[in-house]
């Protein structure tokens, strides 16, 4: 069984795939962490705690100066009673006390995985997952804490979350409620995080741990483009293909905190959860609070194995859309072709060219509703602008369907413009604090989704459009972050709850709409990658990866995004040159190969292409249709890292190892350039593979260990694609 409890030694041993996670109850009441790492068959206390009297380390037991909470490797540390490191949670009682002390009171092991009320979370059957609940109690405060560990037997994944229950007679305020805390009694790690900005999302930052704390967070009301809710600890020397990695990713779309603290004795505390800034919660007597989920992944073979574990886990256990296992359509989005300046005929002209090229989905972006001619009006008014579309959406969608394409539509449902009918009718719907002026972002304000009536308005407005029109795809955008956070409909002592209540309201809306319209493919977006997190993937199986469509920038953005998310979740489009974000001019082939490495589409005016370019677009589309099953549902392997060198290479391999697609990119041409060798990964060493373009045949081990020579070219921003298919032994005769 994945979870074993040794009653005599009071040891919990969790076994998930290739990893073990071990805890023990000491002194009858303290839950301590002993081990997280490569799977072991059984544990016989080889990794015992060495008790030591440390200076300035207080002792809860006056008879034992070697025992202190300040040096104890705790599983869920508290505050105010002798542990001076970062706590995992905090409380404030009615009398003002912030001291808390948790003691172990029991456990429960069950098959399967409970749902987390109101929150996105992974799932599993009773056959492949077990859940451990460890019950802790602060008797003085009347607080019960339940630590949840769900263990996936066939994957190296453990998920964690926490339930707080007020069993006292007075209200309690939770001032901090992290979902994961792990104390590790060693510190020789590097820490890896992903940082960025709008149009420059998910850069890789790897640094050695030293004294103090490495901390990343978001205070923007979303997971944000500035720091991803992901952190990994890497053994020294660990790389793409070797070495241990301990990773955590937060299934949440709001403010988060992730940190690793090195204490004076070279132990570390690795934590993740909701950000305590403006994140309090009032628990009335008898009430409970559920934290979001953290997905913990262990890899013994570097970042590559870590990524493929995340990819498969999210596809199999998190994404609930029927599209999780379906091929995604090639789309064209009208935004960079027309911006706000369009009418029905202009859209139909673009659609006709798209259909003739083989594109499968036409997406109408911003500007179809209210009187939306710029970004400072009409958000919230989800009715058709008859000036632009006099025949309505239904007529347009039907005409596009008649061309053999699906029809998609853009929304930004969480926002409101001051110049809108909704604002004039309901200025109270705005997220704000009384007596404070509005802060405007992108000409818009944010709806107060902490209020159910506002959520119900959003549901009703979007539902009406989706019911009245034949829509196959929805792009759900969010183009500003939360400011003026407050709600006049909650008491003063609940204002700290509004950021989390906003996220809960958003999840409620998405749960209703994506369940009711499960046949629609939903894509999330936040000015590109501003809210790319597992919480969104639960409702929407793909995300627009970045507003930056420059191929060279996208090499890095998509490379780093793939650390946690599979390529099928990444929206990636070919756009015009000079690129609108960077001014760079890159070849159409390279732009295509980078976009083909994700969820492929176009965002340009096909009418402005030359006949030669349009023919090449048709070839790209036919090529992607051929390789799409491998790209979208195969295993992904990173080979050369564009953050470290002038190259980017990666490849995809089908689940049965019968097909492979590899991409090679050289960013800048070099004088006296060396001949590059491309060594693929993930093939079957004993299979034979035929290269599509020239019919040459190689063995799998030859392609992986010997590699293929890349021809020299004098060309900046160069891209090459290599496709291979298995052949039967004997077919190689003559080669």
From TrEMBL:
One of its GO terms (molecular function) is alpha-galactosidase activity. The keyword Hydrolase applies. InterPro entries: Aldolase_TIM (IPR013785), Alpga-gal_N_sf (IPR038417), Alpha-glycosidase_related (IPR050985), GH (IPR017853), Glyco_hydro_27/36_CS (IPR000111), Glyco_hydro_36 (IPR002252), Glyco_hydro_36_C (IPR031705), Glyco_hydro_36_N (IPR031704). Residues 648-723 form the Glycosyl hydrolase family 36 C-terminal domain. Its EC number is 3.2.1.22. It is an enzyme of class 3 (hydrolase). It comes from the Bacteria. CDD domains: GH36 (cd14791). SUPFAM superfamilies: (Trans)glycosidases. Keywords: Glycosidase, Hydrolase. It catalyses: Hydrolysis of terminal, non-reducing alpha-D-galactose residues in alpha-D-galactosides, including galactose oligosaccharides, galactomannans and galactolipids. The keyword Ribosomal protein does not apply. One of its GO terms (biological process) is carbohydrate catabolic process. Residues 30-284 form the Glycosyl hydrolase family 36 N-terminal domain. The active site is at 477 (nucleophile), 547 (proton donor). Belongs to the glycosyl hydrolase. This is Alpha-galactosidase.
